[in-house]
Amino acid sequence: MTHTAKSRTLAVLVLIPSLLSATPAVAAPAAPAPERPVAAPAPQPETLAPTPPMGFNNWNAFGCDVSETLIKETADVLVSSGLAAAGYEYVNIDDCWSLRERGPDGRLVPDPVKFPSGISGVADYVHGKGLKLGIYGDAGTATCAGYPGSLGHEEIDARTWADWGVDYLKYDNCNNQSDGSQQDFVRRYTAMRDALDATGRPIVYAICEWGQSQPWTWAAEVGDLWRTTGDISDNWSSVRSIIAQNAPLAPYAGPGNWNDPDMLEIGNGGMTGTEYRTHMSMWAMMAAPLLIGTDLRKATPETLAILGNREIIAIDQDRLGVQGAVVSDRDGLMVLDKPLANGDRAIALYNSTDSLATVSVPVRETGLRRAGAYRLQDVWTGRVSQARSTISAGVPAHGTVVYRVRPLADPATVPPQVALGATVDNLLPGALGENLLTSTVTNRGVGAVRDVRVTVSTPEGWRAAEMSDTARRRLGTDASFETTWALQIPEETPAGRYPITVTTTYRWGGRQRPASTTSEIIGVVFTPPGDGRRHLSTIAPLHSSNALGPVEADQSNGGGAGGDGNLITIGGRVYNRGIGTTAPSELFYLVAGCTHLVTDVGIDDEAPATAPVTFTVHTDDRVVASSGPVSPGAAPVTLTADLTGASGLRLVATGDATGQAHADWAAPILTCGSAGPDDPVLPTERTIFSFESGTEDFTVANPGSGGTVAQTRTFRTEGEHGLTVATPKDGNWFGRTFAEPLDLTGAARLRFDVRAGEVGTVGEFAVQVGPDWAWCQGGLWSWTNPFASRTITEEIDDLSCPAGASLDLSQVRAVWIFLNGGGQVHVDNVRAEYPE
Ligand code: GLA
Question: How many Å lie between the centroid of ligand 1 and the Cα of residue 172?
Fold first, then answer.
């Protein structure tokens, strides 16, 4: 009766329904608590998951391709690799393990081909290895892959799993027949909790409803952990967005109540080592379950080293069970602070940006107790250093530095922490310009460092010339030293990203041997575009300045954050390509060899200015086109500029002194080399549905779930018409099958333009391919702003097909988009984009 304590608490919750939607059931401090000696930790409530569960789940690496062999071999490797000894305990089977029909007795039946010994046979094997077995079920009529769900079958399914010797249940949320209310989620997930309790077998209960009903506000009484987000995928933007969603939920976590930001992708190949270490670091700091999601039988030593790092595992598994609190989160740099049972604190410096950054936190903003110095142990390098009052490091792009920190009585014997930051211009090869690199060395330790030197190491053939002193005799505590360098890059260097290493050496204490700190930055080399006509919005400017946040590609400027605009709209005309700025703004491009720029300009309807804006196009030092003053609300103006002979292109938007104006360059097209007006504009696209001739048989995939479509003129990008879609609350797939398969060979991504209705929307893409009409799906785009408009893009590589099926684009049988939210959504120009 492992969940009885929880059941009692739930009864209270049911009596006071307002609790369900209001405050978190588990109160934990929002800010780090001041440090106090931890002599005898408070007794923990009885729970099956006093620390976040660790183990393996087959889904991320194998999808539906699960079998007894895989599970047994994985159990073997867990033990032989030492990962089991490091704490990985559960071997979890995900979706697709059963037959498509229940047995005559109403029980779920393991697929006898995949699991010849049944689940109980596998459980015996796994238990024999000292490990535990997990299974997957669904709080709906069918699982996500269409196998029988447990809604209405909770008792018999829980009993079946318990009889088989299952120790862990992941309980999913597909086909849930829900009215969307939180009460319904609580009811469906509590029904299984009660059924599990009734079996008497201790079974960890993992709620998997993707954060839809804010489970952190109610599930503490129901499950041991709960998913907080949609599915992870093996790429950086997925990991970054999941961290952003899960980190603020720290107050809701505690022993037996874990936020679950989904399973690990480490080892699956879609991210760099730095990114995978961030994945592991941040999951540990967030006290997340650590469920390995890669093929362990083929894992590289690097993958095993990341997954098996005992220091980072100790932070995740610390018995205090506190999720690291967000101390600061600014400009893509986040600091987390996690108290540990022995009185230490884990401090993570996380850099989600695309360049090296110095991430710092004053000790007084953390929960560390006041002391004259602190000992920092880097959990990835093992290096130990000391700092006086600021914890800081140069952190590479997408990287995370994690320190285990404690007060230090005798700093004299420990090397000072020296942080090395650096920035570099966007780089031009040859004589095109001067490329500057600056570095900043800061001594954060107690006591001065001496004989500080900085060196820069570049790719072969480049030269780094000193533009400032590069040595300092002495640098006191918290003092900084800046150096500047000019980089010369050989003429023919291709555009791309190049690593540049900056190193500082210094002596400390009485030591003669210098210590050093190294940081890697990425230099981006720009070259003029090659022959062809291109959307200028797909070319990164060499420099830009903007009055409000970053310049936006293919959307308006929106607010101060990146990616927060709408489709560019001028005088009611909607564009799906262009550059959104806020005047005064300036963009600079390399255009040697280009001949023309044609663009519309105007003030975006999203934030009408009070005064006109003037748009001018400059080549080198000449004005080659100007709009004159364009009034707010006016129709777009078309500019044509001759670029012949120019090496640089400058686009300038100026308002007047009365304030900022959202100034758009709409559908700008750059022509270079021998390209003429009839050449296609790159990247090329093929429209699949334009809705010019009607709804084009666009329809709903699941008629039972509802939804309607109609042609419309109220939202349209290219052409005169778009589509109005009415979605049911839980959404539906919209699209259609083709009489003759469509050949989209070579397409890189799927795109469409959308404007949400009054409740916003979120969705996914799917294509059906090949003779079996295999359903390949992916690319959850989560975005819920009412009335916002956007082009949605999904990389075809990110669509995942069922086991055995391949994404054969030469035989596309159907294209679908999932639209969620309820109410009206507008859609236009569903299309495939091809790489250049
Ligand atoms: C959902 C879950 C995934 C996985 C699949 C299986 O998408 O969130 O983790 O279990 O279903 O179909």
Answer: 7
Would you list the DSSP string of 748-782?
-EEEEEEE--TT-EEEEEEEEETTTTEEEEEEEEE
DSSP string across 157-189:
HHHHHHHHT--EEEEE-TT----S-HHHHHHHH
pLDDT number for residue 22? 26
Q: Which of 94, 95, 172, 318 is catalytic?
A: 172
Amino acid identity, residue 487?
L
Reduced 3-state DSSP string for 19-51: HHHCCCCCCCCCCCCCCCCCCCCCCCCCCCCCC
- Per-residue confidence (pLDDT) for residue 34, from 0 to 100: 36
Please say if 95 is a catalytic residue.
no
Q: How far is the CA of 320 from the centre of ligand 1 (A)?
A: 30
Please tell me the distance between residue 269's alpha carbon and the centre of ligand 1 in angstroms.
20
Instruction: For a ligand 1 pocket test, name from 175, 208, 227 the mutation site with the most ligand atoms within 8 angstroms of its C-beta.
Output: 208
Closest CA to 378 of 236, 521, 520, 517: 517
- CA–CA dist 101, 50 (Å, integer): 36
What distance in Å separates the CA atoms of residue 408 and residue 312, rounded to the nearest whole number? 21
Any ligand 1 atom below 6 A from CB of 209: no
In 17-147 the beta strands, taken as DSSP E runs, fall at: 54-57, 90-92, 132-138
Query: 666 near 571, Cβ under 8 Å?
Result: no
Q: Which pLDDT belongs to residue 659?
A: 65
- Ranges of residues in the chain with a pLDDT under 50 are 1-42, 44
- C-beta 207 within 6 A of ligand 1: no
Tell me what pLDDT residue 658 has: 64
604 is catalytic: no
Q: What is the pLDDT of residue 340?
A: 98
CA dist., res. 827 & res. 824, Å (int) = 10
Report helix angle 154-164 to 182-199, nearest 10: 40
pLDDT at 332: 94
Contact predicate 830/818, CB 8 Å: no
Q: State residue 657's pLDDT score.
A: 66
Nearest CA to ligand 1 atom 9: 231
| 580-599 tens-digit pLDDT | 999 999 999 999 999 999 99
> 214: left (phi > 0), else alpha (psi -120 to 50), else beta?
left
Q: How far apart are CA 120 and CA 64, in angstroms?
A: 19
Residue 432 has a pLDDT of: 63
Distances (CA, A) of 61 to 113, 126, 835: 20, 20, 27
The residue contributing the CA closest to ligand 1 atom 8 is 231
Closest of 650, 646, 526 to residue 587, by C-alpha: 650
